[in-house]
Structure formats: C-alpha cells, structure tokens
C-alpha cells in the first residue's frame, strides 16, 4: 500500500521543478477559457493549466486523460481497457460536473444520466492544445462548470503550408497513426486531420483473461474565410467512431462478450464581425453535438439497447472595448438538448430548451491590476431560472514577475433529461445543483523566467447536488459536498536543453449531506494526494529523453468508504531521435516497474507496456 503524509508531499512539490506551460500562463501566453475571449495570462485571476503541442508530442501520450492526470487538481477513473468509460474530476467535484469543449463546442452528453462526458474515446490524435480551468465558472460557460472546464483544441492553420504524420506499434498489438495537413492561401486557411487507433487491449475485468479490444477513428477539419478585414466565416468539425469490447458484470467480476459502439459528431459554424477598428466585435455561431451509443450483448447481432444525445446551440457574443484598459463581453445563448433511448421493449425521447444571457466586464484601473466581474442568467423550460455571479482579480506589482490571483465563481448544473423525465426514477421537481468556489494564488517568476513557482488554495461548497434517493427510488436534491485543498507547481529550465516538471495537489472532498451513512465521508475515487514529476533533456546530436513519475494516494470506491483503493506510483520513460530535420523515431515504456493498481474497484489496468514509432513533418 502506498502511503505518505501531507507534509512530505508538500516538501516534494516545493523541491521539484515544473514546466511553465503546465502552470498558470505567464504574460506572453494567450488563454480563451477564462472569459470566452482571448486574454493575456496576466489578466486572468483564475487557475488555468495550459498543455501545449510541444508537451503533447514530447509525452507521447495516447489518452487525453493521461495528460490531464499530470496536472494539479485532476483525479480520474477508468473502467478497464483503453476506450473504457473514463471520468475526470476537477478539485474533487463529480465527474459529471466537468464541462468539456472540443474546438469551442460543448460536448457533454445529454443522453447520459448526469450529462457527463466520457473521456475514454478522446485520444490525443491531432489535438494540439488543452486548457484546464479549475474552479466554478458558470458565468461564461453555463451549466456543468462546477468543478471546472477542459477545453480541447485542434491546430489552427498557420501561414503557408505544413503537414505531419506519425505511426507507432506496441504492446497488445497496438497500432496508432495520425496525419494532418494545413495551409493558407490569400483569405482562405484550413486544416484537415485524421487518426486511427486499434489495440487488443487488456481484460476490463481485473481477474478476467479475455482481452477487450478497442478501435478508434477520429477526424477533424477547419476552414476560415476572411471576406474582408472585418468579416470572416469560421467552420470546424470533429468526428469520432469507436468500437469497444467491454466486460459488464454484476457481483463477482468476469469476462463478457459485451460490445459498445459510438459515433460522435461535433460541428461549429460562426460569423465574426469587427467594427470601429476592433473596438466592437461580434460572433454569431451555431454549434451541434450528437452522440450515438449502441450496446450489444454479443458482437454481430442487432443492438440490444442504445442512446442518442443531441445538443443544438445558438451563440451570440459581443465585445465592446471603449478604451485599451476596459472591455465588456456580453452574449445570448439558446440551447436545445435532446435524448432518445431504445431497448428492452421500450423507447423514450425527451428534450428541453435553455435560454441564457450574460455580461462580463474586464478592466485594468491601475498598472498591473486586472479586474473581472460578471453575471449570467439561464432559463430552463422545466425547472425555471438560475442566476450566477463571478469575479476575479490579478495583480502584478513588477511587470508580470509576480502575479497575485483572487477568484470567486458560482456554478450550476441543470438536471439531466434522464433525471428529470425517466419513467421510473425521474423527478420533474428537481432543482439545479449550485456551487460557490473561492481560490487565492500566487505565481512567481525567477531567474529571468527560467523558474516559475505557483501556489493556489481553494474552497468549494456545492448544494442541491442530485443523487439517487434509495428511500423513494427517484432522483432528488439530497446531497451537499465540500472540497478544499492546495495546488502547488514549480517550473525550472536551468538550461535551454532541460525541462524538469512537477505538480502536487491536496484535495479534501467530503459529503456534507447530513445523512448518517455518508456525512463526513470522502467522495468516491478522489484521492487526497497526487504528485507528478517529469524531466526531459535534449542533446545536441538529436536525442531527447525523458521520464514521468506519478504518485496517487489512497481513495475509496464507494460513498460509504467501505471499499478502499490503494494508492500507487507509476513511472514511464521515453526517448526520441531526430534522424533528419523532418524525420524522427521515438519510443516509450509505460508503467516501467509493472505496478499493480486500480482507479476503479474490480477493473483492470495496464501493466508494463512498450511502444515505438516514427514521425515526419514537412
């Protein structure tokens, strides 16, 4: 069993360097997740982690969730082989309280019990940037941004033409390949990419012997047409087709022949207009997301049951900048989530309409001080309205070397269509879940930017949390939860060739419902302590090598804290070698010491696994 004290973990975090792109962004970074518009990092008072393209390529990671796991405040659980159901919790919130965007489109699934997003099918493929906002932020993002926001982006086309491709092979007959092409000519820019992944996998049942295979095909495309300096059209699309063997068991774990298939469609079409030398900009867009999930008890038969979740949104956003030191962001959104179910001799279809308005002011009244505040109102045709507020501040007395951050954010999560309307367990009287989130932090740059220290303390209270009521056999607003903790990161680049990275977070997430069996207990699958340490070095003759160590403390698999999940430590090593300026070979070994661990009770995890491949760029 892997155990350690809070004091020892804090000492490790403070003593270990962390890469700059995985801490709060500095003044040279531009982020979009905090306010919905591009902002320099030193304007933002909220805690944001940026995982850039270089980090994604260097780490050689297949799953997006494995990248997220090395950032502070993130906990995850996966139910077996690659592609299995995977949830991400931010600062101890429920996995259904994580809002997920892909290229600006909200992709949380309306056909899920809690509208959560399954990260199991989201592979790194052609993803080139991830922003993780920690803390409640419903003013900008609406429903589900209680724990925070994960914003996933594909590459934006640059000037000229470029392309790349990679292919790798490894453990369990795993094949992973991707290719992309982008270019700009005159007023038109665009990109297109595709990725393919297949593996024989592992048994999703921890004691099983039959491997559960997985196949994933993903495609992405962007097109931007600048009709003039003021008017442009922006089109984006993302698609995932997945086929998963999984083990479905009740009671004792066992192999099974179950199969799940997914088609996920993501689309964005927007018009951008800028007037008065950029003092007033407008964006009007339509976004569309559709998840089609079919489940088979035996492969080769007709689906036994399935779900379709669709979300059609209209968005308008305006930005007024009356002065260089002030901006007003305002907008209107209409959202129409729908879900359909078939199976076991019945069908069900439900839908809702949500109208939202919001306004956000960003001002710099003094040199080095940025203040942000806003309000949002959402009107749901079933449960009524929800109003949320948020405010944050960032102050730098020395031109960005020191940033002091303060943030207050409110969040809400609308009841899912299943929770409202299910014929057996639905409750049309449900209220939205609500949260209040506070954090304070400081970022300190040292040694001319070669070192960056960041420390954040946070507290979140959630009320009216929806859970299944075993007394009435329906969903009800019966839970209260509290999460508090600290996040520490440190970045060091002593020489240009060396990056050493680490992050630490302590999360105390507990039930505060007052129910005797649960009150005061730790929330399931949310370890209190987690540390990640990485180091990468580039040699002058073309070799790069690195390693990552991740340590996660003990947690519990159930709400009564009767089933323990032991803590674990994982180590991985990687290397790449530039054969030419455009061709590179690479390889890695994951779980180097073949640790036996679990992120969900009775579900399998990978042991030691080696992979190797080649990349080409032009």
TrEMBL record:
Endpoints of the signal sequence: 1-20
One example of a Gene Ontology biological process annotation: monoatomic ion transport
GO CC field: cell outer membrane
Domain TonB-dependent receptor-like beta-barrel: 178-592
Record key words, sorted: Cell outer membrane, Ion transport, Membrane, Receptor, Signal, TonB box, Transmembrane, Transmembrane beta strand, Transport
Pfam families associated with the record: Plug (PF07715), TonB_dep_Rec_b-barrel (PF00593)
The keyword Signal appears for this protein: yes
Residue ranges occupied by any TonB-dependent receptor plug domain in the UniProt entry: 43-149
Membrane topology type: Multi-pass membrane protein
Subcellular location: Cell outer membrane
Subcellular location, principal: membrane
Protein family per UniProt: Belongs to the TonB-dependent receptor family.
Protein name per UniProt: TonB-dependent receptor
